[in-house]
Amino acid sequence: MLTLTPGEATLAQLETLWREGTPARLAETTGPAIAASAARIAAAAQGDQAVYGVNTGFGKLASVRIPPEDTATLQRNLILSHCCGVGAPLDIATARLVMALKLLSVGRGASGVRPEIVALIEAMLAAGVTPAIPEQGSVGASGDLAPLAHMAAVMIGAGEAIYQGETLPGAEALARAGLSPVTLGAKEGLALINGTQVSTALALTGWFRAMACLRAAIVTGAMSTDAIMGSTAPTRAEIHTLRGHRGQIDVAAAMRGLLKGSEIRESHREDDARVQDPYCIRCQPQVTGAALDLLRFAGQTLETEANAVTDNPLVLSDGSIVSGGNFHAEPVAFAADQIALAVAEIGAIAQRRVALMVDPALSFGLPPFLTPEPGLNSGLMIAEVTTAALMSENKHLAAPCSVDSTPTSANQEDHVSMAAHAARRLGGMTRNLAVILGVEALCAGQGIEFRAPLTTSEPLKRALAAIRAEVATMGADRYLAPDLARAQALIETGSLVAAAGLEMPE
After folding, report:
1. How many whole angstroms separate alpha carbon 266 and alpha carbon 281?
2. Does a structural domain hold residue 467?
3. The one catalytic residue among 52, 163, 279, 479
4. Which of 398, 419, 403 is CA-nearest to residue 340?
5. Which CDD domains match (predicted)?
6. Do the domain assignments include residue 506?
């Protein structure tokens, strides 16, 4: 069980929750603030003053007053009417992350939900009742209304949920897990659907995958450098401290450590003064390092957002209930766009390393397409073409989403962030990148083996052993698709990085 403290949850905690399916609950210290804000909302619902979403309609209907006896109906109607999501459901791990982020948001004690709402979300996480949340339908302002409504629908006994591998009506899923639906009180439906939790969860999962790929790219890039007998002089520390970018400095240091002790490297050290390798080898610290800086910044933004209160209106510390705009997901949209740029560029330079290794005119003595019998065999020729296709696809997908907007809700919501699909595209982009890096690992491993009897460094020997445990050396042509899938898994699971012993500062 993972205990989350609102305002203090870390990226590492959220990644553990996502990767391992760990149940989550709020720290007990959150109880008094949650109860106090709920009491304030309950009082406002009985009062004469109009309070948006408490005793009024929503959006363009905010001028319509709702009598106290219709409070529960208002909130239920809100959830049901907003269940307009379409597309495939989010995967279970991401949907559970959405629920945990909602806990963090309402746990700050500014949303006005009762402790019963928190308890039900915690119980659903513990029991494995996961709402079926469609991935499309949010424009990332006024919150992720449609997808979050599907989460809330299960809590009131409607909608659909996945339980023990079955997709069931929400009420049945709760009943099978021994749980009961809630009747929503004042503002509780609004608090559940008004927020950035779906966009943020999708961006976080994209960030987790992107960081795993970046670490793997440092390993595959070092292997490629040895495979083509590239120079390590461009990784010297002073070059990078003279420029000063932290990511560049860190990547260069990591590459020096990975390549230290390579016999392949030592065999041609005297050529450093005359050899200038292509940019895809020489400029790895500058490109991958810049991507690392971008990802670090995006990670900070997403950590802040994960701990944020993003519904509306909010119960402030002086007891006032004030409408604002924290539901606008512009920070998440920007972060998602930054992640997309980094992913595209990591893949772009990695693909050029793959192209370098299979080209006999550029690969410094390696056979064409890394096959021992070129002509009879095509080797890794089309694997390289696949990386080119995926690189190009990622370039198209990297176009910014945050600069787009369209008015919605009768022009009441006249500027939106498009954060949800900015973040959703990261799943496909990071899968593409993992394939590119997996192919690079296969090519580089093949290239290093062609340098025998010279051997690579100890860290890269371990990386090569991890590759060979999954994919045999390429001799005669064979059915390659399973090999590419296994190489992709080495990247996505972090197995290649772990084998090399790479450790990167956060």
Report:
1. 17
2. yes
3. 52
4. 398
5. PAL-HAL (cd00332)
6. no
Residue 381 shares a structural domain with residue 420: yes
Query: What per-residue confidence (pLDDT) applies to 471?
Result: 98
Please name the helix (run of DSSP H) or strand (run of DSSP E) that holds residue 168, with its range, or none: strand 166-169
**Cis amide leading into 453 (omega within 30):** yes
In angstroms, the CA 345 to CA 391 distance is 9
Q: Tell me if 505 is assigned to some domain.
A: no
CA 19 – CA 205 distance, rounded (Å)? 9
Tens-digit pLDDT profile for residues 285-321: 999 999 999 999 999 999 999 999 999 999 999 999 9
d(CA 224, CA 447): 8
**Element housing 163 (H / E):** strand 160-163
Write out the DSSP string of 237-293: HHHHHHH--HHHHHHHHHHHHHHTT-HHHHTTGGGGGT----HHHHTHHHHHHHHHH
Q: Output the CA torsion 34→40→42→47 (10° steps).
A: -170
Range of the domain at 222: 203-311+325-405+415-500
Element (H, E) at 135: strand 134-136
pLDDT in tens, 195-205: 999 999 999 99
Report d(CA 427, CA 490) in Å as an integer: 17
- Tokens representing residue 385 in the block: 């073409």
